[in-house]
């Protein structure tokens, strides 16, 4: 994924779909973009719908395949925001792979404009915001729209703002409380949105969407300024550097690799950070909306 954020998680012990059917790369990213879409005005929604309806057939098929949908299904913004993960095997998009995250040194606890100037997550948000606003090409605008939604999700998944030496938590082993996620990044991408008691005939997306929608208006949509992206990234780096997060061990200003190489995900950890991740998704949705309000 590169939340890439944020974001883009499934779960019921009696799950009928495969475990890999949902991830922050899918469910989390879908939630961010659907909630953001809901916050937009009808003219803005119509512009998004038009851009997505004009996507090449091959792109629509790829998005649907990645989301386990029929290839001729309509593309909405929720599904379109998974596109940045769906293209990872397409070598023509290889240059975008580093855009899913921003790496910092282990003694760094803040993100600013000097942390990364290009080819990283914070720069990606600025770049595609500008492209969506300024491009005269509907194809470029559609791609910028899809990238932008994905980047906001990635930025709000804290481990997308972390350290290169452990691949943003991909080398931090975990004993999962729920699911099959074997490392910390994977757990945050996928297993952390597990719902213990999923109502019958209700999908994980429907259940979480209803929960998040009920809390959506408790947050105000900010006005977009490029400097805000660093504040949002700082929220993520602060989370991952905290002792409770289980990602690294503090030694002075350094956040060193865990001495035992991993951590156990307890029920208390899952419940606490499940709620925090839901809050991060809501923030990502409002902040994506703040950008789209300015550039659409």
Automatic annotation (TrEMBL):
GO molecular-function term, one example from the UniProt record: metal ion binding
TM annotation in the entry: none
A Gene Ontology BP annotation from the UniProt entry: DNA catabolic process
Alphabetical list of InterPro entries matching this protein: PLipase_C/P1_nuclease_dom_sf, S1/P1nuclease
CDD domains per the UniProt record, alphabetical: S1-P1_nuclease
SUPFAM superfamilies, alphabetized: Phospholipase C/P1 nuclease
UniProt keyword annotations, A-Z: Disulfide bond, Endonuclease, Glycoprotein, Hydrolase, Metal-binding, Nuclease
UniProt KW Hydrolase keyword: yes
Source taxon at top rank: Bacteria
Protein name, per record: Endonuclease
Origin species: Thalassotalea piscium
Native organism taxonomy: Bacteria, Pseudomonadati, Pseudomonadota, Gammaproteobacteria, Alteromonadales
């Amino acid at each position: 994924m590169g939340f890439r954020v944020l974001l883009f998680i499934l779960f019921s012990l009696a799950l009928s779909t495969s475990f890999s059917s949902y991830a922050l790369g899918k469910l989390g990213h879908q939630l961010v973009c659907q909630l953001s879409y809901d916050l937009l005005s009808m003219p803005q929604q119509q512009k998004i719908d038009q851009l997505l309806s004009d996507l090449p057939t091959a792109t629509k098929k790829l998005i649907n395949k990645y989301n386990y949908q029929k290839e001729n299904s309509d593309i909405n913004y929720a599904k379109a925001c998974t596109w940045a993960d769906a293209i990872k095997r397409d070598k023509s998009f290889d240059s975008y792979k580093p855009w899913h995250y921003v790496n910092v040194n282990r003694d760094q606890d803040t993100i600013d404009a000097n942390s990364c100037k290009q080819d990283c997550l914070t720069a990606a948000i600025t770049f595609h915001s500008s492209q969506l606003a300024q491009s005269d090409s509907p194809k470029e605008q559609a791609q910028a729209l899809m990238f932008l939604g994905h980047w906001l999700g990635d930025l709000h998944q804290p481990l997308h703002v972390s350290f290169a030496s452990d691949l943003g938590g991909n080398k931090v082993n975990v004993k999962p409380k729920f699911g099959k996620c074997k490392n910390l990044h994977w757990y945050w991408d996928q297993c952390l949105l597990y719902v213990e008691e999923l109502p019958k005939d209700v999908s994980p997306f429907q259940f979480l969407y209803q929960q998040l929608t009920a809390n959506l208006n408790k947050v105000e949509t900010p006005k977009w300024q490029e400097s805000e992206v660093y504040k949002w990234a700082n929220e993520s780096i602060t989370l991952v550097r905290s002792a409770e997060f289980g990602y690294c061990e503090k030694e002075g200003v350094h956040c060193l690799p865990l001495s035992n190489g991993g951590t156990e995900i307890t029920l208390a950890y899952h419940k606490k950070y499940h709620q925090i991740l839901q809050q991060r998704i809501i923030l990502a949705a409002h902040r994506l909306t703040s950008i789209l309000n300015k550039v659409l």
